[in-house]
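User: Predict the complex with dihydroflavine-adenine dinucleotide.
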Amino acid sequence: MERIDCDVVIVGAGASGLTAATRLRDAGRSVVVLEARDRAGGRLWTDDVDGAMLEIGGQWVSPDQDALIETLDELGLETYPRYREGVNIYIGPDGELKRFEGEIFPVPPATEQEIVSLIDKLDALVAQIDPDRPWDHPRAKDLDEISFAHWLETQTDDEEARENIGMFIAGAMLTKPAHAFSALQALLMAASAGSFSNLVDADFILDRRVVGGLQQVPLLLAERLGGAVRLGQAVRTLRWHPDAPERGVVAVTDDLEVHAGHVILAVPPILISRISYDPPLPRRQQQLHQHLSMGFVIKVHAVYETPFWREAGLSGTAFSPYELVHEAYDNTNHEDPRGTLVGFVADEEADGVFSLSAEERKARILESMSHYYGEQALHPVVYYESDWGSEEWTRGAYAASFDMGGLARYGADLRTPVGPIHFSCSDMAGKGYQHVDGAIRVGREVADEILAAS
Ligand code: FDA
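Assistant: Here is the predicted structure with dihydroflavine-adenine dinucleotide placed in the model:
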């Protein structure tokens, strides 16, 4: 067993852990980053699949994500806009395809009125929510005890309006059914992006991509940290001294023992309990980590010889709460002559298709995409399903959220350090929650917390 001594040991080489490590190293602290996988990046993973560069994990950057944008600038990475020229597609409950421009779907006028009214109500509520402290809202407990689906039912009888508004948070963001998370959790999701309107505006929330892929952020950060990043080192045990935090921690992998003054657990919160603690974490942490779970979504890439939908005047942007693929976009790489579509199959729909054979699943998913783009969508030259649910060191996608009542009950303690143990992850962020921007923000804040304490 090799022994290393440092000021701070960071568990997890995702965007959050690497940001914290960089900030601490820049402030003169010695750091070691222990990463379970044989690559840096966690949920950022840009890979070559059958000759196509695909963003298997996170990829989009929106204009308010200033922590991410600053990091991209620092690393010299360039961005380009998502292709969005032409008309969008919506498929309603009757299966009829409609073309539209702007953000509001082409629904019957009464439904449109309900959608606009729901967006206004949600924006007004979101304006009252501090994304860093949603539990401080005067009605936090009430809003956390009612599911988002139920809350929508209390607002309108119009099912199509509910389905559409529900989709923006359920299938598209938390990737859980709207009955499985609270109205408060939904408001946090919207507040973290500035407003509910921003979530509805694909041109805002899915604005730009990084030339060469977003995984370059963690890869370049890791490169700068050099030998301080140790890959293939899953932390199994953490030894600490609750009554003498100044004695620090020992992070133990199969090969290494890293002795440090502080540890940052920069892992998704659902994986915190994969580590054994000696002695155990306090009761509060043992409880609260059980009230978070990952959402689940399949990100599907289909690459074609040409972006054929553009010739038909389509932007590639397509939505339908009634389709297996509830949203899809033109995801063609920068200056790539081939055309790429990306679609998403979320929560119970994802469970459903994973009960099929790989061939049947592919056929069902492409059929759904063909409802938006026509027959040509059935014949991609490259096809790939991101399956984060079977990744041992992630276990779902995009991120973790609280169960009903959990946010008001435990949210305030999620990031509270326990002696020398600190927590950092996009899934614990306020602004930028569940996004790379949030991962970077929390990474910076946790590094500052340690610098202030030492
Ligand atoms: P992350 O999970 O990335 O890193 C944690 C690291 O800890 C991992 O590398 C893991 O292997 C490691 N680890 C876990 N347990 C360990 C242990 N015991 N010992 C050692 N290492 C351990 N965001 C966005 O901004 N725009 C987008 O378009 C998207 N889209 C998107 C699509 C898909 C399919 C996914 C899965 C995710 C997104 N996201 C996104 C979300 C974004 O990718 C995510 O929020 C951040 O990358 C999370 O970064 P973190 O560093 O917080 O965790």
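The chain is about 35% helix and 20% strand.
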